[in-house]
Amino acid sequence: MQLYLFFADDAVGPESNNELYDHALHLAPDAGIGVVHDWYPLNKTQVNSLQALDLQNSRLKIPFMHIGECLHGVGSFQQSMFPQALALSSSWDVDLVYRVGRAIGTEARSIGIHACLSPVLDICRDSRWGRCQEDWGEDHILTSHMGVAYASGLSKNGSWGDSDAVVPVMKHFAAHGAPQSGLNAGPWMGYGNREVRENLLVPFKAAIDLGGVRGVMMSYNEIDDVPSAVNPMLYDALADWGYDGFIIADDKGMSELEYVHMVADSPTDTIGQWFNAGGMIEYYDYPLETYMNYSWRTGTRRFRSVWKAGS
Question: Name one Pfam family in it (predicted).
Answer without folding.
Answer: Glyco_hydro_3
